[in-house]
Here is the input.
Amino acid sequence: MAYEKLVLVVLMVGLTLYAWLGGADLGRGVWELLSMGRGGRERRGALSEAMGPVWEANHVWLIFALVVTFAAFPHAFEPIVVGLYLPVSLAVLGLLLRGSAFAFHVQDSAGVLWRSAWTCVFGVASVAAPFFFGASVAALATGRIRVSAGGEVRAAIIGSWTGLLSLVCGILAVAICAHLAATYMALRCSVRNERDLAEEFRGRALVSGGAVAVFAALGIAAVRADAPELWVQMPHRGLPFIVLFAAAMIVGSVGLAVGRFAMARISSAIAAAAVLWGWALAQWPRLIVPDVTASSAAAPQATLKALVVVVAIAVPIAVPSLALLFRIFGPARSESASRPRS
Amino acid sequence: MGVALGFHIVLAALGVGMPLFLLFAEWRANRTRDEVWMTMARRWAKAFGVLFAVGAATGTVLSFALGLFWPKLMGDFGGVIGIVFALEGIAFFGEAIFLGIYLYGWDRLSARAHLLAGVPIALCSAASAWLIVSINSWMNTPQGFTLSASGNVIDVSAIHVLFNPAMAEQVVHMLLAAYMVTGFGLASVYALGILKGRGGVYHRRALALGLAVGAVMAPAQVVVGDWAARFVGTREPAKLAALEGQWETQRRAPLRLGGIPNSNNETTPYAIEIPGALSFLVYRDSGAEIVGLKAFPKDERPDVLPVHLAFQVMVAVGFGLVALGVVFAWVWWRKRRIPESKWFLRAVVLSGPAAFLAMETGWVVTEVGRQPWIVKDLMRTADAVTTRPGLGVYLVATVAIYALLGAAAVWMLAKLARRPLSDPASDGGYGG
Here is the structure.
């Protein structure tokens, strides 16, 4: 049992990092979509520039979480991909188009039509991916995916992920991504003395933060209606995280209001993590409510041990590399001085 | 799934091969202060950025698609092969991090540091290829776990899973293929440029570099291919029989050139047969016995026709590329220049697509040749496939999207390649 818990913690850390880093990239896609048209040119440029170097590395966290899931919990992975076949496919389609469109849409030499077409694809895919992932995750708590003792999966193709909770969580996921992106961009632009852009992103961070708060509140109501098992845990395991989330959102909006962008940036990250961890703990030990638990879904102990070893070897290699990447391309460095704008 | 894999394999091979060329060009540039090498490195880096982004996206799709298409495979064996995927994830991580540094760091890092940042990309991409191919070879020769009475995987030894019997030759075969297709692919692009009259020193040098690598790799690939075929002969007799169109179990089995296997009357007509040659190639003894397809129950035989044809195409193209390499090496040795005849250049233009064709057909051989099994002797593909409806629509949509992305990527790269060389090469990243 100890290894299951350990691997689940590793998985949650991976998911949290994906939410922070990949989520912010997804959010930047959302803002690019909303900045289409002549007025948003500067903003789009800043967004692309911020994303470029870290794009692939941020994305790897999703692969990491995916691989850990099917290596460590194959008997949960199978019902998830069978039961949520459609939304997961749509989310993956979003990622495919996004990844390709990202490379295509930043090409200057390719003409306006080409660029705006791919920017549009990029933006729409950036909304679709978190929406469908959010809806899918929520579906796991609603009891709409049933697994028999023999491993047969029963789930409606569409009905399993279109419940109230799924829809709210899909939108919440998009809002969180947009909020993470906007607070980071506000920080980045203000550090670089791009005051107009920083102001624009400050406004957007406030609006998206409002959306996060509204949909999080709706989400709690939806849990009551749609996921009774989760609701039971809300006042117990869930409560500290709800408090943490609320506190982070308040601190974050104050930070935005007074122009303390670093504070806002950290708060938005804490709020996103609070949603993820609060949810996970409220649902523990079930991976898929009500039939699949962490222990019933787990791979043989040897696999779990090997995974832990792999992660233990990887961390000392990956962390310094990642630190190097973020150091070279972090918010503080000004690019325009050292490099002609492409 | 086949389409998605077939598409990804092209990008993955370039992803493995390109860093080597990039690093070579940049290393020459740093050593010689030669602008031509520098331009080459920068332009290839840009193209590589596009290819990598699309490759990463299609790779992500595949890691999900494994589950979406074959939920049972991942449900039953996820705990076995998952660990190898986890290792691959780490290699990919390293690649992604240093790619970011490499693509965007031209003006942030010293020339030396920038070159060094490229090294992990080459290493990690090769490691990725190794790990992914080892999962494929595991499907051919599964081991490293035990099954309980109820058919559940109970004990897993990651080392044995990774170092499965078929790993070594499949991995080497694939790595050589990756460097080969990249070499011929690059040569092909620049041969086309020269034929169109853009024959400056840049084009000639790039052509020579691509061809030189291809010319070295192609004969090596023949040796490794022989090694792989001998392995298949002993460990996967049904696959060997299918790729040779061998129906009867016999001594002095012939090697067939061409031929169209017919599953109805169980013969392979229209082939040129070299008596005893197959026995000799597999066992180094022309009298050795080769097991034919008839020795296997009908529902355990792979689909012979595509396997045999794909194998023939792969081998034919392989030897064609060797011949091209020999011509190139001969002229280079005698005259210290690349051959300049139109016909040679035309052949080089063809060599790129041909090399990719050989790689794709090789993949067909190993995949279709394993059917009806997805995990040899343990799980049938039909049992692993998803039971969800609408698979047909799904497949059509997949083909359409990949066709679109393929066309867009090619158009984009063509656009990049057509930019005049005088363009300021200082821009970094994917942007241009």
Q: What stands out?
A: The first strand of chain B starts at residue 145 and ends at 147. Residues 424-432 of chain B have pLDDT under 50 and may be disordered. Strands of chain B lie at 145-147, 153-156, 250-251, 255-258, 271-274, 289-290, 373-375, 379-380.
